[in-house]
Amino acid sequence: MKNSHIFKIDALVFSEEIIIKAIYSLNKEYVIEILKHESTFKIIISKEDQKPFKFPELKKLEHTLFKSLNDFKTRVIINDQTKNLRDLIIMKALFHFSEEDINFKEILND
Amino acid sequence: MKVPDYYLLPFNFDEFFSKEILVNLIGDFLIVKSGTAEIIVNRRLENYKLYKNLVSNHFISQKPESSIEILSTRYRTKKAFLEEFTSLHIIVITLRCNQSCSYCQVSSVNTDKTCYDIKIEDLKKAIEMIMAFPSKNLTIEFQGGEPLLAFDLVKFAIEYVESLNSSLFKNIRFVICSNSIAVNYEVLDYLKVHSVLLSTSLDGPESIHNKHRKHLSNDSYQVTVKGILLAKSCLGKENVSALMTTTSNSLHYPKLIIDEYRKLGFTNIFLREINPYGLASNWEYAYSTNDFIKFYKKAFNYILELNRIGETFIEDYASIILRKILTPFNSGFVDLQSPSGIINSVLVYNYDGYVYVSDEARMMAEKGDYKFRLGHVNDGIIKILKNDLVKEIAKYWSNESLSGCSDCVYNVYCGADPVRNYLKFGEMEGYRPDSDFCTKNKSIIKFLIKKSLNPEYYKIFQSWLSN
User: Fold this and answer.
1) B68–A70 CB contact, under 8 Å
2) Less crowded by CB within 10 Å, the N or C end of chain A?
């Protein structure tokens, strides 16, 4: 049993943005530190009361963390691929531009 | 059949019981197998039927530029409340009250303290400011304390609005929030002539209502019910509504509370959690959000049963959320909006002439926190709206840009509450995992979506929305 646990994450697979989003909810129960060394992130998680982790809790935490990382990776891809479109939709919805004012294809392909 | 290449359209996803829910930018949702979002994003989609479903529901597209028109039109519809700007104006006529409720959010005063009535000059200025707003449709709501204790001021306000409106031609709805105790024929005749709606408070049957709502007669329930029935007979039942406040006492009796409303001829109820303002902020009868959610679900399931056997009885909070989920429209409910309803949809003019961003903000001021005070009615509309406080709040009033909300699959059905965040966290952004607002709304939204997947309940919900 340990008082903190280190998860090593490949920085080529999960960016810092993804990691920060993934641990956002975990901050409620745990104290979390993120360190980067070369192409690896170390996520150091300990309990607020500094007590050691029991094995089932650690397994559950690992499952939650990696599921969250994978989900946020997918979300970041969606956001990256749809950002321009999202901005266009909102612009067109809330501002009164005509079709001629905006070159949609150019912006989408940007 | 092979799935063609496609582009992604904006959407979010999350686990939904043992499956996955996808929700797009305009609130359309699909329930799919777990892992579907990842398959879509990684272009591993092989199921042609699912592909067609995703295209027709605007999650993916072969030509995204062709989706822009329809998505922007529907997005504009979802945010149509912005065009109206501030359309709900709450005037606190007096802090005097003829009741003493242990969870009072207002910190009311005794009935003889007329110094807590709004001054005529401030009332006039407030009304002139209200009528200067660009909204064509206005709701002016009189609150207190108990506004009927200063009924002359209410009458003055209504008639001044009507005189100003004779050249402005706005659609004005008046509402008076009263405990119904001071209701009489004279008051009701006036309300009827001027088409004023009456919104009253009823926590449930006698034992529940009287537990926390004290009146001199020692039977608040009896005088309240007498007032409600009189009001209904004079104004018509469609012009009288009631709100309940869930107390720790209520948690065990959801059915009794609903049956009390049915007994008095109401066909709807708003299952309302107590808000942590005023006397309720340190209330010994407080309960957890999870307790409220359990109560809500029990009560709602009972309401569904009533509807199943042929009685139309609506839960108002569900109706508000279902309108966002099942229709292209928003609900106009200022507490569940993004950008949030504060300022954008509601302003409060207090008895002392000061203007606040919301009812909760003026309740905080009663406890000495003036963080959300915009100014005084004498400052004028421009100074009230164009100040640094508004700019500061604007950074936190859209859930699309808040941590924890921006990636939430339900954010299009939800809202932002900077005032509540400030109260709980000391800052307006808040931390979602500890936010009661988030816990409650996420839980109820998820619960309602699951219910709506049942065809029988879906039909009931559609009947509520067309009611």
Assistant:
1) no
2) C
Touching A: B residues 80-139, CB under 8 Å: 82
User: Which residue from B8, B69, B75 is facing A82, i.e. has the nearest CB?
Assistant: B8
Give SS3 for B139.
Answer: strand
**How far apart are the C-alpha atoms of B338 and A68, rounded to whole Å?**
26
DSSP state of B329: S
- Say what the pLDDT of residue A1 is: 45
Contact B71 A21 (CB under 8 A): no
- Put simply, the answer to whether A74 touches B41 (Cβ < 8 Å) is yes
Tokens of A17: 């943005």
Residue B79 near chain A (CB below 8 Å): yes
Question: Do the beta carbons of residue B146 and residue B99 sit within 8 Å?
Answer: yes
**Residue contact B25–A105, C-beta within 8 A:** no
For chain B positions 394-433, those within 8 Å of chain A (CB to CB) are 403-404, 407, 431-433
Cβ contact A94–B12 (<8 Å): no
- ipTM, 2 decimals? 0.90
Q: CB neighbours of B172 closer than 8 A, spacing ≥ 6?
A: B138, B139, B140, B161, B162, B165
Each as own residue / partner, the long-range contacts of residues B229-238 (CB below 8 Å, 24 or more positions apart, any chain) are B229/B264, B230/B183, B230/B184, B230/B185, B230/B188, B231/B180, B231/B183, B231/B188, B231/B198, B231/B200, B232/B265, B234/B185, B234/B188, B234/B189, B234/B191, B234/B192, B235/B188, B235/B191, B235/B192, B235/B197, B235/B198, B237/B265, B237/B266
Instruction: Give the SS3 label for residue A19.
Output: helix
For chain A, say whether B76 makes contact (Cβ under 8 Å).
Answer: yes
Q: Is B73 on the interface with A (CB under 8 A)?
A: yes
Instruction: Centre a 10 Å sphere on the Cβ of residue B217 and count the other Cβ atoms it contains.
Output: 11
Pairing mode of beta strands A30-37, A4-10? unpaired
- Interface contact B7, partner A, CB < 8 A: yes
Instruction: Provide the 8-state DSSP code for A41.
Output: E
Chain center to CA of A26: 12
DSSP letters, B430-464, are --GGG-HHHHHHHHHHHHHHHHHTSHHHHHHHHHH
Task: Choose among B386, B357, B349: nearest CA to B373.
Answer: B357
The pTM for the full model equals: 0.94
Per-residue pLDDT of chain B (467 residues; tens, 9 = 90+): 888 999 999 999 999 999 999 999 999 999 999 999 999 999 999 999 999 999 999 999 999 888 999 999 999 999 999 988 999 999 999 999 988 887 776 667 788 888 999 999 999 999 999 999 999 999 999 999 999 999 999 999 999 999 999 999 999 999 999 999 899 999 999 999 999 999 999 999 999 998 888 776 668 899 999 999 999 999 999 999 999 999 888 999 999 999 999 999 999 999 999 876 666 666 667 789 999 999 999 999 999 999 999 999 999 999 999 999 999 999 889 889 999 999 999 999 999 999 999 988 998 998 899 999 999 999 999 999 998 999 999 999 999 999 999 999 999 999 999 999 999 999 999 999 999 999 999 999 999 999 999 999 999 999 999 97
